[in-house]
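ok here's the first one, seq then struct tokens
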Amino acid sequence: MHWRLALPAWIGAATALIVGAAAMSAAEAKSPGSRYCFHGFCHRVGTLAQTDTLVGWRGYLLASYYDSCRVDRLNPCGLTSSGAVFRPDLPDNAASPLLPDGTVILAFNPKTGDASVLRVTNAGPYSGKRKLDVSRAAAEKLGFRKQGVAALVISVLQSPTKSEASYVRRREYPRVPGYLGRFETVDMALEAAEERFDVRADDENLAGDTDAVFETAALGSASVPKPQLAVSPSLARELVMLRTPPRPANRGIRLVQGPRLVSRESFMARQSPEPAARIDFASGLQRYLLDPSAPAD
């Protein structure tokens, strides 16, 4: 294919940690808590416990998109790091070098107001600045396919179980909503995401993690809550890659309702007290004494 046609795809590519002889085993490369490298770029995947602490926490990062290996020369053909078949035509999947496979996130573009629910199914991108690759269809829905990259606000909706984060050849994850629509604020997008996406209950989340089940069983029937871990500083630092939060567009969607501008004359007029109404007590008293049935002023 002509390189000009392939340019937008490989701007945000270099994602695929692919199963094959030329690459490290996906099961070894993107296990939670592991460190892996590709073409000189190294990343450490967050552990399941660290990802749990990110649920509801918001970060912002620089995102790009990647496409099918037929048009994206930096994305080798094969299965993804989770074992799932890559579907660039579906707006519901993404790749992350930091979040374990199986993680479900909300991605919000503050410049357009577009929001999507995505499941992480792959590793990459392999770049020091970009920390998320979404599918081509997701980039189209989020409004940055033509630009190739965008500053997004993300929030983890659901962390994966141990089985969901492990490699399974040709696995099929449960579907997530994908594109949600356009919203004025990230709070409204998050509310819509929580309504559209059925978050797994805590007991179901523990079902696939034998270590967590053991910990819960050790507590027995005692009403002792599990300690809440703090957000991992290293993982949070990686997810806040931009020097300043992404700004909304000057036109169209506004994230913050600011104060209205008023003129100095209008402001001073509001500060000056209004003159009190003049009351004629004498005439009112006279009418009351002469005609008690007359209405008072």
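and now the second one, same deal
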Amino acid sequence: MPQLPDPSGIRNRPASVALGELAIAAGVVGESLTITSGFAANTLCQIWKYYTQMLGAGNVIHVRSKRDLKDFAQRIASVRAVFVYAPRFYQDVAWQIHLAVAGAMSPRPPVFCGFQHDDPDLDPGFTLPLSNDERETTAVHNWVAGQGEHRFVEIEYPSSVEHDARLESILQPSSFDRIGLDFREQRIVEALIEGAALLRSAANQDRNDLVATLGDYEFVRRLLCSPVVRPNRELCEPLAAEMMSRANVYLSVKLGSDRRNPFRVPDDDGYRRSSNSALKRDAITRRELADLGNINSRMVATLIEYLQRADDGYARYLRMSCTGDPIAERGWRHLTPREVASSLKSWSSKQVRTHFDRLHQRGLVTAEREQMNGPLNYRLPEELENVGSPYSKLPALQSLTQNHTAA
């Protein structure tokens, strides 16, 4: 019998961890999902290590080379999870899973990747992308530190999966057209609901005929509407938008009219005065943007110290991308720059390359002036700033119940 992480307490686990457990359970009932992540390697390592310990090292496969691909091809039905380390191997893994000839309820493993797909249209499967949310990262590490003994449960393969009649209005394709989900997003919702039903059945030691309930749906809906879930579209870069927002605050100081600002540099080539956005020199370098993402850097501390003295400093601080609620205006000038910096989101040099440089090289990120004598401001196409979860329009539980009663 296959084993799964003990579902007890799953509702208290970080959303990214719980979604992975639901994907693993969905694989048992024949629905293979891919979960991609923008988390830093140390965070991702903690999550993957937990899945490996719960499933058993012999029930997972790590794809790092072509040899691993050959091994996986012979173990598709028996593997409970696949961890892919490099983008060049993902397509082979996904195609092997979805081309495998098997019955409707045959197990198919989920795939976990530490990278985002360059082109979702080339993906033969169903991918759920997770973003590098600062709060979620903290939640994962706090959860890992507070874990007790690892436990798992053994389950039987279900013979069938049924759905509560009130879920029909959600799981029918026509319903997803109405609320703005595409076919892939629909399949992701359905697979996760079935995974939730399997975990609930295992926790309650129910018989092996599964019935997905409204409670399973509501649990999945809340997870999919969490900030960690990002749209399954290439043109969506919330982290790049946050980078540019902080970069624009920095440029408003560096290229502003105040000659006493701490970042001012000689303007021998007239860069500040030029309205030509096609100048070869970038408004901000990769090194500067990486330093702005390091909330412990001297650059961030210097910038905050300058803003604390400026008349409009607090308004500009609010545009620097906070991790949660910003510091109240009444007391922010009395805090040290380091204390203020701790409220900001952070990013790494690697994330600058993958979330900013890629867009900049494709011409999707531009720097222009709002005024002739004003500082340069980065702009991002509107569709790239769409940071909301595509599942936010899923109807709440109360709405489903009321609609079914009225019918």
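notes on #2: The chain has two domains: 3-235+388-406, 238-385. The chain has 17 helices and eleven strands.
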